[in-house]
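Before relying on records like the one below, remember that each one covers exactly one chain. Contacts with other chains, cofactors or solvent are not represented anywhere in the record.
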Amino acid sequence: MLKKALFILIGLFLISCKKEEPVTPSNSINKILPLGASRVEGSKKDFESFRYELWKDLKNGGWTFDFIGTVRDNAKYDDYLGESFDKDHEGRGGWTSGQIRDELDGWLAQTGAPDIVLFSSPGGNDALEGLPYTDAISNINAIIDKLQASNPNVTIIVEQMAPAHSSAMTPQLTTFMNDLNTDLISIATNQSTAASQVVLVDMYTGFTDDYLADDVHYNAAGASFIADKYYAKLVNYMDQ
């Protein structure tokens, strides 16, 4: 119960720290929406988001792209290759899949339709809060439906999520994550269309306790691990 309370308090703290910005829809190719909860948002210096490391990977690859979203975190990031980090994202610390589902249409109305979505740790907070597994599955499908309604050609990269710290992986949490990572295979198959691919990225395999800053959030090494896995998948779906 103490760990669960800590997760909830962290989520509430992160919600209070978000900075909402006026949004102008992007005209870039490769508009990328990082979508999820605290693993997207980050909270430097306590723990890291993968976004900064992925942004550097994409800059190193010479890609043209734009991260989009209605929030920006307040953390400081070093410039890289003479450019400032693109902080736009849709990571909401502590939010469940149902909360994301309910607000997604409003976010998309502000940002415009993404070309690519990075759907981080789907159902992760549902699992931590002990919410019904079937509701998480329903919400994940609904989120994909909304994204495809916004852009019938969108590519949605969905994480088979990295685990929590081994000391926090209760039997209930382990079952939830294992079942979800398996069921996402059929979700990706069933939700893919000829124009809109729903593809999985395996964040679970190879992820260890050494990649965590606390029970659930990434340290610098973990952020790099996740970013590199995203990059290897992402570049197969980007326009030149």
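Strands lie at 19-20, 31-36, 66-67, 71-72, 90-91, 116-119, 155-160, 198-202.
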